[in-house]
Design goal:
Elements lengths: L1 E4 L2 E5 L13 E5 L4 H15 L4 E5 L11 H15 L3 E4 L11 H14 L3 E4 L7 H16 L6 E4 L2 E2 L7 E5 L9 E4 L4 H9 L24 H17 L5 E6 L18
Parallel strand pairs: 1-7, 3-4, 3-6, 4-5, 6-9
Antiparallel strand pairs: 2-5, 7-8, 9-11, 10-11
Helix pairs in contact: 1-5, 2-5, 3-4
The structure holds zinc ion.
Length: 268
């Protein structure tokens, strides 16, 4: 099968031609425009602070959300991308509330995998409250496999992209909790995560900001949710002896080349 795509670039750090970029170290795929910041903004901020290249790709524009509009959310997503110092941010324009693994949607995600060629891929967990999150998990898993198949030809920005599968597949935590396979110390980057989260001001509670009383309240627009977000990160941090942590599960078994890898100074 052949697909020709020109994905919607929400943000790009430096003006470059639409050609396959230098591979990113980590790609985050999410169902909705604020999901990545909420669930793994800490490791994103950490990686970019280390000089690594990170991109985020959203499946939908969040147009079914109770608050905000696609135009407002697009501006907010670009601002969050700037705060997180992303290399690039895309939106795939899959209908919100109706994510499925159709051939067209799979091709859109394969385009992202082949274009960004990430070592690490972060995406939603298999079991979630919002069906879009579960369906995005299934869509990414399908695209991951098909991205390695040479019979699937994808042209992105006028260029046919080579097959590719990321090395590491990790799922981040959204509403439902699970026992993570590992935790990452994000204490030094938790404030940047919060700033990127506050950039989605139409969706979330921002301390000290005037609240839009005309919009319906949602789970994440309350001050209590912000406290919950911090408390979970603090709880996870406590498990590894640091202030704040984020937890992840590996889809495939993790292996070490040497027992010495566990002797790295910041291995918790
Ligand atoms: Zn979501």
């Amino acid at each position: 099968m052949n697909f020709t795509l020109s994905p919607d670039i929400i943000y790009r750090r430096s003006a470059t031609a639409n050609t396959p970029a230098t591979p990113v170290d980590m790609l985050v795929i999410a169902a909705h425009p604020d999901d990545a910041e909420l669930s793994c903004g800490g490791v994103v901020a950490q990686m970019t602070a280390e000089g690594k290249r990170v991109a985020i790709v959203e499946c939908t524009q969040g147009e079914m959300g109770s608050r905000g509009t696609p135009d407002i959310r697009r501006v907010e997503a670009a601002e969050a991308a700037r705060i997180l110092n992303l290399t690039e941010r895309w939106n795939l324009h899959i209908p919100d509330g109706a994510i499925d693994a159709s051939p067209e949607n799979v091709a859109k995600v394969v385009a992202a995998l082949r274009y960004f060629r990430p070592n690490i891929l972060l995406f939603p967990p298999v079991f979630e409250r919002h069906h879009d999150h579960e369906n995005a998990h299934r869509l990414v898993r399908t695209a991951y496999f098909q991205s390695g198949l040479s019979k699937l030809q994808i042209e992105v920005f006028g260029q046919n992209l080579a097959t590719y599968r990321p090395k590491r597949l990790f799922t981040y935590m959204q509403t439902y909790e699970f026992e993570p396979d590992f935790y990452v110390d994000v204490s030094a980057h938790f404030e940047t995560k919060l700033q990127s989260y506050y950039a989605h001001a139409s969706q979330v509670f921002v301390p000290g900001a005037a609240q839009n009383q005309n919009e319906p309240q949602t789970l994440i627009s309350s001050p209590e949710f912000l406290e919950y977000l911090k408390a979970r990160a603090r709880h996870f941090g406590g498990k590894i002896g640091v202030e704040y942590a984020e937890g992840f599960t590996s889809v495939e078994p993790l292996g070490f080349g040497s027992m010495s890898d566990l002797l790295a100074p910041d291995f918790r």
